[in-house]
Amino acid sequence: MSNGVVSQAFGIDFFLGTKDELLKHISASLKKPYTYIVTPNIDHVVQFQENENLQKAYRTADKRVCDSRILSPLLKSLGVEIKEVITGSDLTVSLLKKADQEDLSITLIGSEEKDVVKLKALYPRIRLNHYNPPMGFINKPDEVQKCLDFIYANPSDLIFYAVGAPRQEMLASMVDATKRTGVGLCIGASILFATGSLKRAPVWMQKARIEWLHRMLSEPQRLVRRYVHDATHILPIYLKERSGRRSSEEVN
Question: What is the pTM of this model?
Answer without folding.
Answer: 0.92
